[in-house]
Each structure stands twice: as C-alpha cells, then as structure tokens.
Amino acid sequence: MKKLIIIGASGHGKVVADIAVKRGYEKIVFLDDNENVIECGGFPVVGKVAEAVDMQDDKIVAIGNSKIREHIQSNLSNVITLIHPNAVISRRVKIGKGTVVMAGVVINSDVVVGDGCIINTGATVDHDCKIGDYSHISVGGHISGTVYIGSNVWIGAGAVVSNNLSIFSECMIGAGTVVIKNIEKAGTYVGVPAKEI
C-alpha cells in the first residue's frame, strides 16, 4: 500500500492530497502543529511536524511559506515530487524533489524547476526557464521563455513575466503584475509595469 505523509494541514495540503490520490496513494495522513486541526481534505492529522523526521514513508511539505517549507524539507528523507496527471510537462523538463505541479499547468521544453517549488493551478512556464528552489508560481501566473527566477521567489496570481528576464532571489511579485525588465534586488514589486514598493 502506497502511503504518503503530508506536512501542513491547510488548503494547500488539501490540493496536494487530491494529487496524491490521483497518483495512486492509498493511505494519506497529515502532520500539523495546530492541535485544533484533526483532519484535512478528509484525511486524518496524526501528529506534529517534528515527528516526520523519524517516519520512513514518502513525504511532501504542503506549506505555502517558502522559508518554512525549505526548513522542514531540508531535514527530511523520502521526499517525493507530485505532478497532477492533467499537467502538460515536456519530456525535457527537470523537476526537483518536493515540488508540486498542479492541474492545468504547462511546462515547456528545457525548463529546470528546483526543489520544493509550487507550480500552481493553470500556471505556464515556457521554454528554457530556470526556477530556483522553493519558489512559487501562483495560480494563472505566466512565465515567458528563457526566464531565470531565483530561489524563494513568489510570483502572484495572474502575474506575467516577459521573456529573456531575470528575477533576483527573495522577491515577491504581486498579483496581476507585469514584469518587463530584470529585477536585480530582493523586494516586493507590483503594477503594470512592475515597480518596487
């Protein structure tokens, strides 16, 4: 029986659990430090996050905050990658451990996605992109060809990044923002075109 431990019993965890079911996991349990949460998406919460280190089953961290996700995942073994069966992934894509790819995602040729990333529902990543570890492309985000995104970057819902650009690590790109030139320092950027705030 395929068993999966999902760390983080939240809305994101529910979506991860749905993908796991579609990928053949027959037993799914959650770990979460909130004692008031006893189930998530119809699956039980069976313990605290720290207990994951000693568990030998497959694991995935389903926590939106990239720094927390990175901290937890870096201490775990048996971390898996989950890709929704309705995602379209080129045969020439590399996806790191602990990354989740949601329904409706398109990732085109020669893309490298790092560890612990979230490529969320309906997002697109075109050819020759590199997405750094623990970054998140939110729902409906669109990354054009030959874009470099650093680590711990959050691309907001519906944001667009034009082709041949770089986004520095530790950046937040607001929902609906349009990036048309390189972002060369950490910060929060919003608007059309993107400006630091």
Compact overview of the structure:
With 197 residues, the protein is mainly β.
Please give the order of strands in the largest beta sheet. Answer: 6-9-12-15-18-21-23-24
- What is Rg? 17 Å
Q: So what's the oligomer here? A: single chain
Total helical elements: 2
The main β sheet shows up as: 8 strands, mixed
Measured distance between first and last alpha carbons: 50 Å
Strand content: 25-35%
Indicate the structural class: mainly beta
Gross geometry: globular
Number of DSSP-assigned strands: 24
Helix content: 10-25%
Mean pLDDT: 97
Instruction: Note the run of SSEs as H and E.
Output: EHEEEEHEEEEEEEEEEEEEEEEEEE
**Low-confidence spans:** none
How is the secondary structure organized here?
Elements: E1 3-7, H1 11-22, E2 27-31, E3 39-40, E4 43-47, E5 58-61, H2 66-73, E6 82-83, E7 88-89, E8 94-95, E9 100-101, E10 106-107, E11 112-113, E12 118-119, E13 124-125, E14 130-131, E15 136-137, E16 142-143, E17 148-149, E18 154-155, E19 160-161, E20 166-167, E21 171-173, E22 178-179, E23 187-190, E24 195-196
Kindly describe this structure.
This protein has 197 residues and is mostly beta strands. A hairpin with a 4-residue loop joins strand 23 and strand 24. The chain is globular and about 45 Å long. The termini are far apart. 41% of the residues are buried. The mean pLDDT is 97.
